[in-house]
């Protein structure tokens, strides 16, 4: 249905993407912090605004600087809780949560011969010889069915999937470089929770793809600890934490992780079509006057905070999962700002995109905020245009459309997870997942990887990357012949 302009029409219901009520979720993450020996510093980044954003930094008793931080967006309570959860996610997926005993070493060429053959990194891994690289074991999500425990949010009672104390593996090397046991990098946690595995042991995915910190100089001792002497100089540009997510159940975490992976793919395809695909592409620009009440409120706040025209684009890809981009143009004084959102509910996708734009803008007021200059692709004009992400010309040619939502994209996280996995499978894409950590509180961190989905959006951070197979197909489908960048 099309939302009305001028109010009076009830907004579409947002899907139940939280497994439990917000106060219960906050109690669980607070219990997690206590078990980890951490205290949270919370900062309201936008007092007086609704929606707004909060910042959270985590410290140990003797730590002056945060060990991890995160931001949350939305209404006041939602944003505060989101900041707590994201900070915990970043802590558990960082060096403090590294579990060397769960690492498997594999030859890059062998890894490239598996599911990664459909990924852009496969071409870099295949010719590599010499040392083996650290990998984590993933299981296919789905198969003939998704397990009942996942769909109901179960499988996390007692000691959690790992069955161990969340701080059991902390070593004496200090918390900043400590090793947090209780993780389940081999995928068994997903399997016990009811996800069908693949073969006898799943597939190996290089750790660098999900952990940018692992390839940095500061992690050299951890790489040495597991016997990883691989040269990551040419690979680290493709490293990102896309696909990592936290939740109070496995299903909730997996849903958020897959939605983020689809979101990054859609953004990457937009970049390709606008800047590498030649003329003729017209993005879909949503008429803000047709937004339902909740996204309309977020749109007004985003416009107020940025002091710029805000553009909301429907960038849903061929996968068909609603994905939105909230965007402001770059200026001589400031790079572009953006927020993205993906959900089976178009209204919720728009809300997430607009509130992320609010979060991005408010985050610039924080002392630690830094803007990355996309200088790396400067020697490659096509990639530099992608990095700068100036949509001015594309917006002039945009096709203005009314917002179209629905009132049926509702359901528990497990139900939505089933739908998203089926959507990917229909396109010949397999989603793989692993439990990074599952704590006694029920808080669970996962990572998902879908070979073939694009991560070309890394170019906007200044990384010298090129599109994968999906991106190249999108570029080559342009009305005119194009010249794709070569590295």
TrEMBL record:
PROSITE patterns: YCAO (PS51664). Pfam families: YcaO. Residues 70-487 form the YcaO domain. It comes from the Bacteria. Residues 1-20 are annotated as: Disordered. InterPro entries: YcaO-like_dom (IPR003776). This is YcaO domain-containing protein.
